[in-house]
Amino acid sequence: ATLVSGSGRLVRGKGQEPTLVRFLRIEGDVKVKLAGEFAWQQADPKMLLRVGDQVKTSSAASAQVLYFDGSKTTIQPGSLLEIRELYEDPVTKVRRVREELSWGEVEASAQKRNVEGSYHEVSTAVATARATDEGEYRVAFEQGSKKASFDVFSGTVEVATDSRRERLQGGERILSSSSGRLSAKELLPGVPRLVAPQDQRVFV
Question: What pairs with residue 169 in β-bridges?
Fold first, then answer.
């Protein structure tokens, strides 16, 4: 198995491939800044992403990335996302994927949990969303107001700040203020989303 630490250090098991990330889709002007570099470069479908890499979409662009555990994230227009952690324990098989949304909006699709302790997490400056099993959720963060919103379409997602944690089920939404104060949960408006099979599910 392979571990990629939050510091960007890559540790390979003997004869194993690193846990990398690849693009499933690129539409419009999408740029990537690799860890440790200062220049942005145009995203390429053949490009492999690692811990510390950032993906930025223009106001009319979007991208979708696929992680080693089968989870995927769609980066909506006008967003900046950084890959913070890619981890797989060679013994327990625990898998962790962590992303940080600097601004904009993403939709995350987590796969069915392989073992206890695995999760897919999207954090913002004020609150964090974590899915420990199959589900779909959206995270949006406004850079100016520093307010975040979390919409859960299916599954269960835990939203946490420094002072409070809430578990959201499919069809629920919660908001966070700039100080990290969570609102009361509310029902999502709009058209119901497909619950099963999971929309655009990736089988690995």
Answer: 156
Distance in angstroms (rounded) separating the CA atoms of residues 49 and 33: 10
Tens digits of residue pLDDT in 127-152: 999 999 999 999 999 999 999 999 99
DSSP string, 4-42: E-TTS-EEEPTT-----EEEEEEESSEEEE-TT----EE
Torsion of CA 22, 26, 31, 33, to 10 degrees: -10
Half-sphere exposure at residue 101, Cβ-oriented, CA atoms within 13 angstroms: 32
Structure-token pair, residue 65: 């990335």
Q: Is the pTM of this model over 0.70?
A: yes
Rounded Cα–Cα distance for residues 62 and 41 (Å):
15
Phi first, then psi: give them for residue 119, nearest 5 degrees.
Answer: -160, 165
